[in-house]
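Quarterly update from the structural biology core.
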Amino acid sequence: MKYDFDRMTDRRGVGSLKWDVPERELPMWVADMDFETAPEIIEALKKRVEHGIFGYSVVTEDWYEAYRSWWSRRHHLEMEKEWLIFCTGIVPAISSAVRKLTTVGENVLVQTPVYNIFFNSIRNNGRNILESPLVYRDGEYSVDFGDLEEKLANPQTTLMLLCNPHNPVGKIWDRETLLRIGELCAKHHVLVLSDEIHCDLTDPGYEYVPFASVSQACRDNSITCLAPTKTFNIAGLQTAAVMVPNPVIRYKLDRGLNTDEVAEPNAFAVGAAVAAFQKGEAWLEELREYLSENKRCVREFAEKNLSGIKVVPSRATYLLWLDCSGITEDAGELTAFIRRDSGLYLTEGEEYGACGKVFIRLNPACPRERLLDGMRRLEESVRRFTGKNGKE
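Predicted structure, tokenized:
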């Protein structure tokens, strides 16, 4: 491989959220990779730093073209320049959309278990969280369309947050599923906001389907959140975009983003995104291979050494969702024990909704040596946990 993903990086002492933990601990929780970003992005940032002047910035023409070219080439979605609006991040965009496009006391629907920050964007703005739990059967997740339509039909439901691909379960929604979701939302006058930040992190040989590409109804009744940040591990640079084909919705959201002051780039946000989409493709292809192998290593390790824990099949994101129902009814208790016992820091599944109570989310996006260290810690702690609870 041209790029070295095996190199053991050191992120302590640089203000890293993920690594702001005691020395003995190994963090595998937040969705943040332990790899340096693509050298091509680093080179672009170096050139910007060498310029030495960091005044106010604008969104340049090559930023629009970088997004349009990438989605056309890789995801078969043709965008118009006018559809794109810069924003500092997907979470700020979601919060702005909730404030601008819904009213206090209305329902915002989510399909749980789902990215936990969705709940913050809804609750912090005085809206009601309305959960439509996904169906978990035989180790796979699917949409409960009966429950979904019942909740979309509630007149108080005005916005649906769609996670596409789905975090934390790693599901790539197929075209038929997205089409049916789009038809139901249009039928019941519910706007769709599709968070597609994980879209480029699919396993080799798999592609995601942009929600807006599925039908005219989906395109005209949706906001899509896009970014290079998860893919290229540059979340700290605060660079993202919203794509809104419908001019009426776009105007409203543009006003919301500007009112909230999250529509202007810092000195590095535009150039980093352009470098990622124009020059980072080769790095991404090797990363996808490496991440797929890491996920395979976790699955095989679990099958051999973690009796009672099942890894839910994942074809997207670099995250893994572990079904711990074979050893506990409370994965929160388990994750707390693991952290105390071996220092391995994971995320309890209940953070993603009540239906995640027996699950743990694990982030294997790190050099393989570090991943294997984490797996050994997990094995030792699970053995002690099951012994303590009389399950051996």
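The mean pLDDT is 97.
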